[in-house]
Amino acid sequence: MFEDEETRELGGVVSTVRQNWTKQEIADIYSLPFHELMYRASAVHRMYWDPSEVQQCTLLSIKTGGCTEDCSYCSQSTRHNTFVKPTPTMKVQEVLEAARRAKEAGSTRFCMGAAWRELGNKKNAFNHILEMVRGVNGMGMEVCCTLGMLTAEQARELKEAGLSAYNHNLDTSPEHYPNVITTRSYEDRLQTIANVRDAGISVCCGGILGLGEEESDRVGLLHVLATLPEHPESVPINALVAVEGTPLGDKDEIDSVDAFDMARMIATARIVMPRTMVRLSAGRMSFSHAEQYLMFQAGANSIFNGDKLLTTANPEFDKDQAMFQKFGLKGKPAHKGPLVAPAESSGEVVITKVQGNSQQFA
Ligand code: SAM
Ligand code: DTB
Ligand code: SF4
């Protein structure tokens, strides 16, 4: 069976799924003239994905606030005095009800977040989470969790319960990371990502723009992601949501992220990890429809829907529906992976070499 090809070509743009990117190669792509970067990213996007499909995902904070970590952007850390009030873990039935509503609203992926450093030995809560995962999986949705650090055994149990994906962000480059978070290391994050990968769960790992990073840190993050033994199936690109009371929310001297920064980051991610879902995640409240269009053209193919992310605001559902209509976009079905043999019959894409790599397919 045809499984994977090494190189695709469309409109003079050549694309390969490869893990041996150098940082310089990624920097060269990142700093292309904007019009050229957008053209290449759009072409790569069309070689691997149906550009009319954008996945709608729903987030739910199943355990909010009271987190012991010191992530300097986060509303949920006990170290910062923010609007968030810690609340206990939600009941299984409430969570499943929320997933049902999300599915009815057209969402095909449901992501449950908990404000924890790690799952640790929270036995009771873990059993409830396994039940939630079984329930959401049973509805035919993709089911994702983000619960902090996981052991290999916990990852295996989540897989067994039907977890599709695990979100664990690296946030920024290894060099800038200690300026943002001091209570855990980059290595810790990479270990959880490896545990998730080894359990056969798909990896969702990305970052945030607006943490006071340099462009070289953005390139550095993409370099780490694109040189993992397998590219994450999902890369969320967040724009910092500045929360009052957090060190980053209160800082004046940090330049805010604009739509061109986001489009550049998304386009570069699209080019260096062509088979990956690139998620336009937090920060959409600050971008107009025209700006978000730029990000879809750059290769973003997923958004979070509903008027709340975990603790902060997200565009209203109806406004997003109107945006989809305006752009001619439709929702992506659950579990639909990248195009395997795009436009072979029409001859639009020339396949030059075939190589097997079944892990890359949903
Ligand atoms: N506690 C778990 C963890 O940190 O892995 C899971 C939840 S955590 C809130 C999920 C991700 O949301 C973080 O890794 C970070 O990338 C993103 N995030 C949190 N606060 C944010 C903010 N104010 N703006 C943008 N992204 C944010
Ligand atoms: C991701 O990268 N972004 C989402 C999801 N993964 C879990 C979370 C965004 C959180 C934004 C801030 C908040 O609402 O608290
Ligand atoms: Fe805790 Fe996650 Fe927020 Fe960091 S990002 S403070 S680990 S909830």
Q: What does it look like?
A:
It is a single chain. The chain has 362 residues and is of the alpha/beta class. It has a single domain, classed as TIM Barrel. It is 35% helix and 15% strand. α3 runs parallel beside α4 and α9 (259-272) runs parallel beside α10 (289-297). The two termini are 15 Å apart. The structure holds S-adenosylmethionine, 6-(5-methyl-2-OXO-imidazolidin-4-yl)-hexanoic acid and iron/sulfur cluster. Residues 73-74, 113, 115-116, 146, 148, 168-169, 171, 208, 238, 240-241, 243, 282, 310 line the site of S-adenosylmethionine.
Radius of gyration: 19 Å
Tell me the series of helices and strands, N- to C-terminal: EEHHEHEHEHEHHEEHEHEHEHE
Sheet with most strands: 10 strands, parallel
**Count of helical segments?**
11
Query: What is the assigned CATH homologous superfamily?
Result: Aldolase class I
- In terms of per-residue confidence, which ranges show pLDDT below 50 for 5 or more consecutive residues? 353-362
- The proportion of residues in beta strands is 15-25%
What distance separates the N and C termini? Answer: 15 Å
Q: Using DSSP, what is the number of strands?
A: 12
Name the average pLDDT: 93
Do you know the CATH architecture?
A: Alpha-Beta Barrel
Helix content range: 25-40%
Number of domains: 1
Sum up the overall morphology in one term.
globular
Regarding CATH, which class?
Alpha Beta
